[in-house]
Design goal:
201 residues; mainly alpha; 9 helices; 76% helix
C-alpha cells in the first residue's frame, strides 16, 4: 500500500515537473503551493545557525537566487532532475535550497558543512496561506519577467553563474571579463532582484 502511494506521489510530481518545463501557469501556481514553504524552511534551517550575520533580506536573496537558478538557461536545472536516482522531487528541491543557503554563507566568508539529503527529506511544512502564496507567486513571476529585460550579456551571466553554477573564475574566462567584473555583475543583478522583491513585498 505504501509503495502504491509513493508511486502515485512520484508520478504526480513528474506530471507537475512536466507542466513546469512547459511553462504552465497552473503548474507554477501548484509548485508554489506545494513547495514554497518547504524551500523557506530549508533555507532558514541553515541560516538560523548564523542569525547574527544573516538577515531576512539574506533569506529573500537566497530564495530569489534559487528561483533564478530554476528559471535560467531554459530551466536547465529543473531538467536535470532524475527520479530514477531514487530522490523525490520535493527532497531534491529541499537539497537545492539548503545548498543555496550554504552558497550564500560561503559568500559571506563562512564555510559550514553541507547538509545531507535526508535533512531535506525530514522537513515537512504546512501549506502557505493564500496571501503568502499570492505574494510568492507574484515575486517569482516578477523575477522571471525582470530576467527577460536584462541585456544579452547579463542574461549570459545569469545562465553561467546561476544556471550552470560556474565559479567566478570560470565565468570570467567564458565571458572574457575580469573576476572583479564578475563580482560587480553579481552584485548588480542581486541588487536589481532585491529591489524587485521589495516592491512585491
Amino acid at each position: 500500500m505504501l509503495n502504491e502511494t509513493h508511486a502515485r506521489s512520484t508520478q504526480d510530481e513528474m506530471l507537475l515537473l512536466e507542466g513546469l518545463l512547459q511553462g504552465s501557469d497552473r503548474a507554477w501556481r501548484e509548485f508554489h503551493l506545494r513547495y514554497d514553504r518547504l524551500i523557506y524552511r530549508c533555507i532558514t534551517k541553515v541560516t538560523g545557525r548564523f542569525a547574527a550575520v544573516v538577515s531576512q533580506d539574506d533569506i529573500r536573496e537566497i530564495y530569489a537566487t534559487l528561483i533564478v537558478q530554476l528559471l535560467s538557461n531554459d530551466m536547465h536545472k529543473l531538467r536535470t532532475f532524475d527520479a530514477a536516482r531514487g530522490n523525490r522531487f520535493s527532497s531534491w528541491l529541499g537539497l537545492l535550497a539548503i545548498n543555496a543557503a550554504y552558497d550564500h554563507l560561503r559568500s559571506l566568508k563562512r564555510e559550514p558543512n553541507r547538509a545531507p539529503l535526508n535533512e531535506a527529506e525530514a522537513l515537512r511544512c504546512e501549506l502557505p496561506t493564500p496571501h503568502e502564496l499570492c505574494e510568492r507567486r507574484e515575486r517569482a513571476q516578477r523575477v522571471a519577467t525582470v530576467l527577460r529585460t536584462f541585456s544579452a550579456k547579463d542574461q549570459q551571466f545569469v545562465e553561467l553563474y546561476y544556471g550552470e553554477g560556474l565559479e567566478p573564475e570560470q565565468v570570467a574566462e567564458r565571458m572574457n571579463i575580469s573576476v572583479k567584473t564578475v563580482y560587480s555583475k553579481k552584485h548588480k543583478i542581486q541588487s536589481r532582484l532585491e529591489s524587485l522583491l521589495a516592491t512585491a513585498a
